[in-house]
Amino acid sequence: MLYGNAVIVTMDEERNIYAPGALLIKEGKIADVGKDKALREMYPHETVRDMEGKILFPGLINAHTHTPMALFRGLADDLPLNTWLKEYIWPMENKMVNPEFIQWGGLLGILEMIASGTTAFNDMYFYQDVLGQAVKQSGMRAVLGQGLIDFPTPEAKNPEEGIQRLQTLLESWEDDEQVDISVCAHAPYTCSSELLKKAFRLSEKYHAPFHIHVAETRQEAELIKEKKHDESIVGYLERLGLLDSHVTAAHCVWISEPDMEILQKRKVKVAHNPTSNLKLASGTAPLHLMLKHGLTVALGTDGAASNNSLDLFREIRLAALLSKGLQEDPELIPAYQALEMATVNGARALGIDDKTGSLEIGKEGDFIVINTSDPSMQPLYRPVSHLVYTVGREHVEEVFVSGRLLYRKGEYFTLDASLILEKSHEIAQRIRKESGI
Amino acid sequence: MLYGNAVIVTMDEERNIYAPGALLIKEGKIADVGKDKALREMYPHETVRDMEGKILFPGLINAHTHTPMALFRGLADDLPLNTWLKEYIWPMENKMVNPEFIQWGGLLGILEMIASGTTAFNDMYFYQDVLGQAVKQSGMRAVLGQGLIDFPTPEAKNPEEGIQRLQTLLESWEDDEQVDISVCAHAPYTCSSELLKKAFRLSEKYHAPFHIHVAETRQEAELIKEKKHDESIVGYLERLGLLDSHVTAAHCVWISEPDMEILQKRKVKVAHNPTSNLKLASGTAPLHLMLKHGLTVALGTDGAASNNSLDLFREIRLAALLSKGLQEDPELIPAYQALEMATVNGARALGIDDKTGSLEIGKEGDFIVINTSDPSMQPLYRPVSHLVYTVGREHVEEVFVSGRLLYRKGEYFTLDASLILEKSHEIAQRIRKESGI
């Protein structure tokens, strides 16, 4: 199929934008992309679909989330992190999180991500074999990691059991095209150095991504500093030998410029979560400095319990806005850079940049179609500006992964939204009862 | 019509939420509101419309915008304010702004505001008689002010001509139910003290709202401080006698706590524009302190040239998030307070709180209907939380003003969206040509 007469923002290295442009999808892959006229002439026998000036853009990549927590969306807000975690989230997780919760909460989150233009996500939670099945069913891509931590979890009585389960997971999904398994250590302040090292070695052994929360809160940074004789969190991880190009460090709110130099040297990827950081009052990550130091920064929504949305377009916009206002410099985080974070950098953070993240020949046909005729999208002087400052999920019309249509204007083609809503509703009723809301 | 089986977030003083609730509209006004069962029993002969658990909420009020600038949306971004204004916006305004621009740009902005749940707005721009006709046609409410300034404008060669035109405007719209005319002095740094005082006296004479930009940028605050012997902008306006309960001060990014005390004492309303302040790198307004000092703070989008959207739900969310992260205090700007800013406080800023801003008996039937069955809105534990952190314009299904349906799921009932898009497109082509984009 040749998708013609479109505005194609490729996100390739040359920053090519074709307007009017065309995208040729063959057997799920991008067979060609370029100027509309040239491609029509080159492929006269292809079926052409006229895209009427809509924007074609790579599917977004959510680099840090806890998808099934969609079932905790709006359960508790406007509270100190400790109260939020200890009085609401952890007790509810202990009571409620089981494979059924993961299945339906995961599917609920996936419905929302698809409708907002996300085609791949990086997850950290529990029972990832169950979430993996949900991802397969949806047609999306994901990197899924079961959280290792020093305490008992809904899934494992102790870290040893967690590691055993993780190994099974790594082995059983080894050859999957859509789902990769990552190794997740929750955070430097919740995992012993032994657990961190074990986890890291496991990630090396299985060539799996390593996903970890790093320096999310001021308290965490201070705690490590105190416990580790004035070391920074990044310094501590570096000393343990846990920084490498297959590591994604989520948050990095409380890191210094010397920390950034280490992360850059080690080619660690950062997942920036601006909404969650503001909402939980963790602070504002030094995004402009991370980018100045050449770090690969991707974007995440974090879980819907602390956002309370999985719409990555909101994160793109917020990431582009925040540094400008805080540093009083309107030239920081230009629109294009914000888009890179949600696409190519996301793909790098997930270790799937050979497959997705840009519209280039040979990559998978993961793309979204953006409405440009809505009054809120007009005039359209510069598509890159609109994609950052104007587009919301209300403008996402269609979503494709490997050339397959997953979503069109409210309709899902791989998932039964009614059933997922019904099951989510049942579980939510139980959460309501348990929490006394 | 009795709108039953809804979640009704009234925004009345007792913070009443009825779930399930019902809203009775008679002759365009709210005749009753309360629990679903009680109202059905009380009004057995009313036609009932089952709202299927959707949220009914007061129409949003945009307290500061320049609507026709929708035609400059995305024309220039990521630039220092001076470059943006002097190289892009002002030259384009001088060349392009005429009654035709106002008509179609105004209608374009109105289409967007309606679809995102806004039912009233506070405008500052030119040729407001033309915009007034557009507002009448749309069925919305607005307070419209022609900007007075020391320099020539697209509408007036000098301030005297501006004042003459404004007087005509004030007199010709005096008895209108939908449109009020305000007196707008652009800003303390662009108007002489004589012009400011003349403008203020005019607002008193005509009982018109007074709308002015105050302390938007650091440079502006420093300029006034230097020129006025160390006076703050607010102190300067206070000395001139220009602060009163009918004044709306837009921005207030660079004000101190003593300034806030003055504004509070004088009952001045503040229009807070968080996106525009970040995007233009003006800074972040001290919202939590303004609220602590008891100021009535409303929310605005500013113009689409510096936002680049007129969706007030984005401002609600951002206003609720920003102070939390910046002050590292998750209890600042709780969800309900953010909603007050966009509704009751907005109505106070526009001087129309007798008519709109909450769902209370006797007020006009200005309300919006929010989808709650979309996956991104589920579960729905607490409607107030969702209205702030989750809702976007994608969830706005219907918009009513004085009980009249203006919009339903992409369809407009008072305006010809195709024609407006066509005309906007023509003007945008000319802007493109003039600006060399």
What does this structure look like?
Two copies of one chain form a homodimer. With about 425 residues, chain A is of the alpha/beta class. Chain A folds into two domains: about 1-60 and about 360-410, Roll (Urease, subunit C, domain 1), CATH 2.30.40; about 60-350, Metal-dependent hydrolases (TIM Barrel, Alpha-Beta Barrel), CATH 3.20.20. Chain A is about 40% helix and about 20% strand. The first copy, chain A, contains 16 helices and 17 strands. In chain A, the strands form two sheets. In chain A, strands 1, 2, 3, 4, 5, 14, 15, 16 and 17 form a nine-stranded mixed sheet that branches. An eight-stranded parallel sheet of chain A has the order 6-7-8-9-10-11-12-13, with helices on both faces. In chain A, helix 13 (about 335-340) crosses helix 15 (about 385-390). The radius of gyration of chain A is 21 Å and the shape is globular. Chain A starts with a strand and ends with a helix. At the A-B interface, helix 3, helix 10, helix 12, helix 15 and helix 16 of A face helix 3, helix 10, helix 12, helix 15 and helix 16 of B.
